[in-house]
Amino acid sequence: MNANELDTEAAREALSRMMLEMQNTMNAIGDYSDTDDTDDEDTDNEPTKTPEAAPSVPTTAPVEASSTTTQPAEKKKKKKRKSKGSNKPNLEDYEKTDAVDAAEDPYDMSKSVAERVELAVTRFRKNRKFDTMRGQIFSVYLDYGGIKTGQKSFQGGGVATGGANDDGEPDFEAMNAGIDRVEEPNEGQTVDFENVATTFLSEFFLKSSGWIEAQYYTDTPLVVAALMKYFLVRNVLPEHEDDIKRALAVAEQAKDELPRIKTISKHLPGRFDKACSLIYGGEFYGILDAAPSWNGGGWGGVAKTTETFGMDLSFAVRLLNSLLAKGQELSDITVRPREYMEMEVVKVEPPSGTSTPLDNSISAGGDLDEIEARVETMVHQLFAADAHAADTTKAGEEGATNEGQSWPLPKLACVTFAEWDHEQSREGQLPVERRRKIKAYFERPAAEVMIPGMRASAYVYTMSNGVSYLEQACFYPTYYLEADRIEVEDWNSDDDRF
């Protein structure tokens, strides 16, 4: 073999080695190019892989085209991202006493009350799940108690929008984001968690919040109780521990009583009140006239009006005869002028002829049909309080009836009230036996959930037989308390208070 042939053979071997090295290098690059850089926790501790060295053994075999083709490396599957806040406890978990960090037990006593409350509220908000309704309740409660909430709080940000990491689930951290600020109390102001919780869960909730959905009646006391429990577990304000415990007790009481109030309100006005109003006078007097002047001739005629209202005059007479007429005619009964009264429940008797006592448990149903429930709201809006003031009006003729309609007589419960002195606290009220009594009839589902001590207000019509019927009645929990008028004005003007 001459020199030229040796040079050609050496060049061929060198070229073959270069091609093999390039192939191995490309394979090594393919092994690492698709590593998921988002899973840092999984890759940080793994040893770094290095490509194997290319073989140095020379070969004279020609390089085939197929040997340079690389198979694409299998991509590593990305781990599913956990939704933010998925491990955060719900408010229902507030009764579980978690271990308290030493750094938080107690909160730094060198900080002021306002600073510690601000810190605790911020942590509570951040580490708890809030849906839209509970977030609204929480913000309103903080504002009512003097804790100002930033504009970002509970306004949007609840769902991730777009992006490679959007899992479409609620972003609880964004939902809970907010800026809570607590001002130091002004001169003359005191820290009173019990008063704030009591007035918020009674007067404010029932008269000012505008919350009418049933879920508000269960979630509102839950939110308050959860925050008070958090303050106690985290030992935020040890110097106010007794006050916070009393506030928690009120919230626990509200968890039972507010749903009862909602159930009662669904059955007001009752059929007894409506029947008396039709016959003796009140907000429903004249509603079944053939062509009442106030509505341009009725709601589609007498039959349609009767069906919508849920009773006719014939049914009203039968109902009152079954309850009131003890050896006398309905026309012999007279009615005193109506009067506004505040009262408290002192006795609830089961319907006559029934042996099952009322158990005061939450009732899940009722015998008022859907049409009657709708008309109750509609009629309240149409009639003024003094549409027909009853004085000594006697029951007149039965008038028009819908003979094709038949309603079974309900079994009603008798409830006794004692007059309530608005100027006095519960402790300042006269003994029950020395106060005026009012007896009225209610639907059984409403009476079942009434408990002694519940408050009520209504326009009261007292009949000559000693029984009364109510108009525009409202019920309140046993712990009902109205905020001081000065405090209400301060809250409405956005002044801070505790």
UniProtKB/TrEMBL annotation:
InterPro entries per UniProt? Arb1
Regions of compositional bias (Basic residues) in chain numbering:
75-85
Q: Which domain of life is it from?
A: Eukaryota
Q: Name one GO cellular component term.
A: ARC complex
State where composition is biased (Basic and acidic residues): 90-99
One GO term under biological process is: regulatory ncRNA-mediated gene silencing
Instruction: State the residue spans of region: Disordered.
Output: 1-99
- Which residue stretches does the UniProt record annotate as biased composition, category Acidic residues? 33-45
Q: What is this protein called?
A: Argonaute complex, subunit Arb1
Species of origin reads: Podila minutissima
